[in-house]
User: Fold DUF4377 domain-containing protein from Fluviicola chungangensis.
Amino acid sequence: MFKVLLITLSLATISFTSKALNHDPQLIHSDAGEVIKMRVQGHRVECQQNTDVVKWCYSVQKGASIGMETWEVLQQPIEGFTFEEGYTYDLIVRIDMQQGKTGSERFKYTLVEIISKIKES
Assistant:
């Protein structure tokens, strides 16, 4: 019985690891934050912090919304990510909570991996 349980646990671990490496899960929880899939559209959008300052932000889809028609504005930078206009990116991004911050600034986005970079037509 013990051998069957051990084999079952080993297979479950291998299955989870291979899915994580293939970026299968939509969301992975870790001690360092949450790791998600994110699509970044090939052009940035204008977003304003106040009436005097114009800021350029990413237009993104996250997790299960990737491939849908709707996009959301991401006002924070993605640390470690260098954006090139005209390319759509599929990324793996870690999201961490920042203590003492409020609103959208309480989230810190860090690039884990670029899955793809595709030239827009």
Notes: The two ends are 58 Å apart (CA to CA).
